[in-house]
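Worked example 2:
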Amino acid sequence: MTDAAHARRQLAFPVLFVILWSTGFIAAKFGLPYAPPLHFLLYRFALVALLMAAVALLTRAPWPRTLAQAGHVAVAAWLVNGAYIGGVFVGISRGMPAGTAAMLVGLQPLLTVLIARGWLGERVVARQWLGLCLGLAGVWLVVRHKAGLTDDATGLAAIAVALAGISVGTLYQKRYCSHVDLRSGAVVQFVACALLYLPLALAFETGPVRWTSEFLFALGWSVVVLSVGAISLLYWLLRHGAAANVAGLFFLVPAVTAVMAWGAFGETLDLPAIVGMVLISVGVALARQVAGAAEAG
């Protein structure tokens, strides 16, 4: 790959990742009225596993060479896909506003930076901390009017699990799974998640799945755009950048989600929310600039 092509990917892939990842809350809002969260995700993981198995076989992708390597991929999947996505879906289904969930999960960059500093030995400088703090302030301004916490302890616990899962999972993926092919790795990931969710869905959910057009659209979007597109982009970014740098992108998700919700559901954006989006953009720019300079040095 030429330097110019690599530079274009370095610019375009983070933008595309934020846009795709932000649609997750929109897909949840579309789909959850028609299916319990664990069943929704069970179907999603199983379909992605089948789709990526076909891709891996047709393209003759190399498979993990050892059981230990496959095990690392499965653990990363349980954290990034199982705990994070499952926690968000369960939290929203139990009455937590989507904005509140986005704000709480938006704490992930700060948590990831703290963990990365001790676990991966990544250096975090003062300007990067400033960027992360600005981003956190911006997250609050964007979702402050939706910040009423649910009284349901299960919803709060689910979001806490989601936050821990995405924070630890991205670092685990970077440390142990960087050399696994994305195509075959996706098969292992989503088979592992489907096997995890099958007994959970059968044990804890009894509600029916209504196969409406809205549910089919949400499921299809979740399979192709989120589980294939966004997750693959996340792992590509982790392989080509510092974990703290990638984590900073998650500060953009609540703001982009708010814009999407305004367009799809008529939710309003006031002046403080727009100011928050500006703070988020500045914060992410600071964090990414410092991380990029550190990598270049």
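The longest helix spans residues 3-31. The radius of gyration is 18 Å.
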